[in-house]
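Q: My labmate handed me this sequence with no annotations at all. I'd like to see what the chain might look like in three dimensions before we decide whether it's worth expressing. Could you predict it?
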Amino acid sequence: MKNVKEITITIEGEDWQKALDKSFKKRNKEVKIDGFRKGAAPKEIYVKNFGLESLFMDAVDFVMDEAYQKALEEAKIMPVVEPKLDILEINENKVTFKFTIIGQPEVTLGEYKKLGLKKSKAKVSKEELDAEVKRIRDQFAEIAPKEGKVENGNTAVIDFEGFVDGKALDGGKGENYPLEIGSHTFIPGFEEGVVGMSVGETKELNLKFPDDYVADLKGKEVKFNVTVREIKERIIPELNEDFYQDLGYDNIKTEEEFLSEVESVLLERKNAEIEDEFVDQCLEAASKNMKVEINPEIIDDEVHRMIHQFEEQLRMQGIKLDDYMKITGMTHEKLHEQMEPEATKRVKYRYLLEAIAKEEKIDFTEEDVKARAKEMADNYGITEEELLDAYGSLEVVKYDMKMHKAIEILKDNN
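A: Here is what I predict for the chain of 414 residues:
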C-alpha cells in the first residue's frame, strides 16, 4: 500500500558501543558476581559470566529513540498508528532495525453534495403521547401500604423458602423480599399463587421448574412456603396542577397545556433522532462515493480504542473487563471481531470528514478555538485547563471544530 514505508536503520560503531557500555553499567549494578561488590565487576568479567547478549535489550532501549527519529526523517510521513518494529540483526558491532510506518491513507473525495437524500418529518401519534404520559405518571407513582389482598401490579413483601425432594433449595430462601406481581421474577405459577393472599397469611405453593431451567433443576417439582409480610400498591398521580408543579411546570394549569408540553418534548426528541439518522445517511452515502484503502492496522487501532472506552464504561459501573468476559462467555477475540464493523465505519467517516474539511478549506483562528474551549469548559462546569488536560491540546479542540463544521456542510448540502 502506498502509505506504508519500510525503513531500515542501523546503529553501529561508537554509538552502539556507547549503548552497550551504558547497558553494562545498568546491569552491573543489578547482579552479584563472586569476588566483586555490586557494580564493581569489570566488563570482561561480567561478559564472561552472563554473555554479551544480556546487554543487547537494554542497549536497544537506549538507541531506540534515535533510530526511530531517523526512520521518520527518511520515511517523510507521519505515522497514524504505532509503527511495527523488527530487529533484523544484533551483535557486538551493530543493531539493525526495520520500522514499518503507516501514514495517512490517500483519500479521493467523491460526490458529497446533492445526494438525493430525504429527511423524514417528526410526528407524534396519540398512542405515543399516551404512552409517554403513562410513563411519566408511573415514574412518579407513590408506593403505599395497602390493606386487603394481593392483586396484580401490587408489591408483596414476602418470606419464602423452597424445597426440592424434601431438602431445602440452595439459594431458594428469602426474607422481606419485595416481589412485584406481574414482573415474572420467579418461576411460572409463583406470583399467581401469591395473588389473593393477605398480610400474615402463609401458603404452600407446589410448582414445577420449567424444562428450560438450569440442568439440575429443570422439570423438577418444588415446594415453596410463602408468608406475606406486607402489601404495597402503586398510587398513580392524577393529572392536576399539583402534579404539574411537582414536575417543575409552574406555568401549566390544565391537562391540555400539559399534553401540549409533553408533545413538544417528544417532538424535540424525535427531531434530534431524525437529525442523527440523517447525518448517518449522509455519511454513509458520501463515504460510498469516496475512494480510500484502509490498512488493517488502522482498523485494529480503532478497535483497541473502542475496547478501552468500553472498559472505562464498565469500570464506571464497578465491573472489570475480565469479570465481564467471564459472565458473558466473551473472549477478547470475539469482542474484537464484534467491534470491527463499527470501527471500520468510524475510520471511514473520519477520513471522509477530513477530506471534506480540506476541500472546503475549513479553518478557525486561534481566538475562535480558545473561545470554543472556554464555552465547552463552561458547559462541563470545569476550568479551561482541565478541559485541555482531557483533550490534550487546543489543536484537538480545533480538529473537533473542523469535523463538526464538515458535518454541517454535509447536512446543509443534502
